């Protein structure tokens, strides 16, 4: 009898994991554009609202698959994911020289008179279709505007938009509009 109970204790957790399938993400709306450290994020990707959703182990201490870091007078990084039953999509935003509020242009050449620049400003990848977009095509305006930078309360808020293309075929692009974030960084 003790052996049956022991076997049952081993098998029950396995039966519960059998249904461990991700749910389908809901239809999203954009979060409000705030500046309070609300840990909100979203944008429109080719007409579809995209928000961070789902969970990954490395974001356990963060808010719903959203993480960020900032080194004062240096690099700002924001990572977000949308993970559900049918999608595994990631978004990355990098600013290599965030020093104050203002507009940062992707790959702007400082020597050409740009006072703020961004290194690889927006990167979007979709695991379901194996596509990686991380190159801003010539002639496109890809911008991040920092509307709040509070190093005392650890808040960074802003907006972003632009086109990003595949590295191997720059004719294949996605358009990102109405991007916004309000992050409380650590």
In words, what does this structure look like?
The protein has 186 residues and is mainly beta. Helix content is 9%, strand content 46%. It has 1 helix and 12 strands, in the order αββββββββββββ. It has one helix spanning 2-17, and strands at 40-45, 48-51, 66-70, 74-83, 88-98, 102-106, 117-118, 122-126, 131-135, 143-150, 155-166, 173-184. Strands 1, 2, 3, 4, 5, 6, 7, 8, 9, 10, 11 and 12 form a 12-stranded mixed β-sheet that branches. The longest helix is centred in the N-terminal third of the chain and has 16 residues, at 2-17. It is globular and about 40 Å long. The chain starts with a helix and ends with a strand.
Summary keywords:
single chain; 186 residues; mainly beta; twelve-stranded mixed β-sheet; 12 strands; 9% helix
Which class of secondary structure composition applies to the elements? mainly beta
- The portion of residues forming beta strands comes to over 45%
Total number of beta strands: 12
* Poorly predicted spans: 6-20, 108-114
Cα radius of gyration in angstroms: 20 Å
């Amino acid at each position: 009898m003790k052996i049956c109970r022991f076997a049952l204790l081993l098998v029950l957790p396995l039966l519960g994991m059998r249904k461990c399938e991700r749910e389908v993400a809901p239809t999203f709306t954009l979060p409000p554009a705030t500046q309070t450290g609300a840990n909100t994020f979203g944008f429109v990707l080719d007409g579809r609202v995209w928000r961070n959703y789902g969970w990954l182990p490395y974001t356990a201490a963060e808010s719903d698959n959203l993480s960020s870091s900032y080194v004062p007078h240096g690099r700002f990084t924001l990572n977000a994911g949308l993970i559900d039953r049918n999608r595994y999509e990631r978004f990355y935003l990098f600013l290599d020289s965030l020093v104050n509020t203002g507009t940062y242009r992707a790959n702007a050449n400082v020597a050409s008179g740009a006072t703020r620049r961004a290194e690889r400003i927006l990167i979007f990848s979709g695991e379901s279709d194996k596509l990686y977009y991380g190159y801003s095509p010539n002639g496109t305006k890809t911008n991040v505007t920092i509307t709040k930078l509070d190093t005392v309360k650890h808040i960074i808020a802003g907006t972003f938009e632009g086109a990003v293309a595949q590295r191997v075929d720059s004719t294949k692009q996605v358009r990102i509009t109405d991007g916004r974030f309000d992050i409380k960084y650590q």
